[in-house]
Amino acid sequence: MARKLFVLTVAILAVVFSISHAYDPSPLQDFCVAVNDSMAAVFVNGKICKDPKVVNADDFFKSGLNIPGNTSNQVGSAVTAVNVGNLPGLNTLGISLVRIDYAPYGLNPPHTHPRAAEVLVVLEGTLYVGFVLSNPGPNMKNKLFTKILKPGDVFVFPIGLIHFQFNVGKTKAVAFAGLSSQNPGVITIANAIFGSDPPINEDVLTKAFQVDKKVIDYLQSQFWWDNN
Asked: Of 96, 137, 179, 206, which one has the fewest beta carbons inside 10 Å?
């Protein structure tokens, strides 16, 4: 009896284990259109792997994060990213890094990272940060979590949620953030909605934002600065 129970337990665990691993890996790019072409290059995590025999230390190295970004723009911030696009050794490791510089009262506008959670640490200045929850319950609004951060403080933004940072001080601010993807992606809300190419149909936006058509026309006519 005990032997039969043991065998049954092992069988159940084997099934559970196989089910838990029977899923697609998280995508590391916005899309991957299927192509029926045997000669097409095969990509892993959006990149082709380098021959290990020619890999060297420089593939895992990048300098320059000591250099402040240019914050003389409309939003007063600059994001300097280190991801698989400029540090090849990050491929398949599931991590990346950014430096964020803020002018006085500079803003890193509300945005999301579709493929990464983010942990932010402030090195200099004072930041007002926050994120908004998704899927509120019945008769609930999307809840906002905010915090004032000073040097040495750390704050986490969960994956995919809209978040922001605003320099509330009269001096510059600097922060670094780690992200749980080699290619986290970024969708800056205002830029994506009002600055998409081609533009989103204004009838859609008029109804979505419940404003006059002239307001949408005005917003779509603006130049939406990309601080990345």
From this structure: 137
Cis peptide before 136, with omega less than 30 degrees from 0?
no
Give the contacts of 224 (CB within 8 A, at least 6 positions apart): 188, 190, 191, 194, 195
Residues at the annotated binding site for Mn(2+)? 111, 113, 118, 163
* Phi, psi (rounded to 5 degrees) for 122: -90, 130
CATH (one of 3.40.50.10470, 2.60.120.10, 2.60.120.260, 3.40.630.30) for 23-185: 2.60.120.10
- Please state the residue numbers annotated as binding site for oxalate: 108, 113, 118
| Binding-site entries | 108, 111, 113, 118, 163
Residue 155: partners with Cβ closer than 8 Å, 6 or more residues away: 119, 120, 129, 147, 149
The predicted-structure confidence for 160-188, as pLDDT tens digits, reads as follows 999 999 999 999 999 999 999 999 999 99
Q: Which residues have C-beta within 8 Å of that of residue 141, sequence separation ≥ 6? A: none
List the chain domain ranges.
23-185, 186-227
Contact 74, 225 (CB under 8 A): yes
Averaged pLDDT score across all residues of the chain: 88
